[in-house]
Amino acid sequence: MRTPIVAGNWKMNTTLDEALALVGELQPEIESLSGVVRVVCPPFVSLAAVAERLRGSSVQIGAQNMYAEKSGAYTGEVSPLMVQGLADYVVLGHSERRQYFGESDDLVNRKVRLALECGLTPIVCVGENLAQNEAGQTEAVVGRQVQGALAGLDAEAQLVLAYEPIWAIGTGRAASAPEANATIGVIRRAAANVLGQQAAAGLRIQYGGSVTPDNFPEFIAQPEIDGALVGGASLKAPLFAEICRQAVAAPSG
User: CATH no. for residue 48?
Assistant: First the structure.
């Protein structure tokens, strides 16, 4: 059985005070839940404060990104060594990083390998854009992204994958549950080409893209889907808490 994982990506939202207020409202709602891994991913400026607020909690913390070097003259970047001790997870290869900041499969791979070296669990994002989807290129695109991101890893690598169709992120238009399940099956097979069948079978793969409490039960009921990477709904404690409870009610794997 693969334990579901629900992660909230707050993106470039919340001031420090707002982040603390959000986690303060959210933590009592999800602290006692078992059977689901719960992760919040605040902005870097709030990471230390949120980590302190959740010290001793069962709710885990993720960073939204990291650079592919441990240190150096990279003004404005954040290294995995700076994240160590504050976060358990790190989101890598998000479509917004690929689209707006030009991150390649090779760069994502460098980040993934360094994150693992530094004891962080990567949440590696893959997904196709609308033109690729409509052209029937989804399988080729996500397969390339998965094999590129995981290149050089072995079966022992501890990571999570997230399928986020770019055309569904922040648009209110989610993929259908069967469609997402089929694509995540493609992703799992691509991961097996790198990590082996047994490791891929145990790999948790989330769905992300306009996830809400209204549509998440359909996704988590699918056999290939192991949770969600939640965007907008993670900024509202009642919505995120309900998604976490839904994951408990219908574990996948």
Answer: 3.20.20.70
Q: Which of 96, 103, 128, 164 is catalytic?
A: 164
Separation of CA 112 from chain center: 13
> For residue 233, what are the domain limits?
5-249
Catalytic residue among 94, 96, 128, 224: 94
* Per-residue pLDDT tens over the stretch 121-169: 999 999 999 889 989 999 999 999 999 999 999 999 999 999 999 887 7
Number of alpha helices (DSSP H) and beta strands (DSSP E) in the chain: 11, 8
52 is catalytic: no
What is the model's pTM? Answer: 0.96
29 carries an active-site annotation? no
Rounded Cα gap, residues 102 and 187, in angstroms: 22
Domains: count for the chain: 1
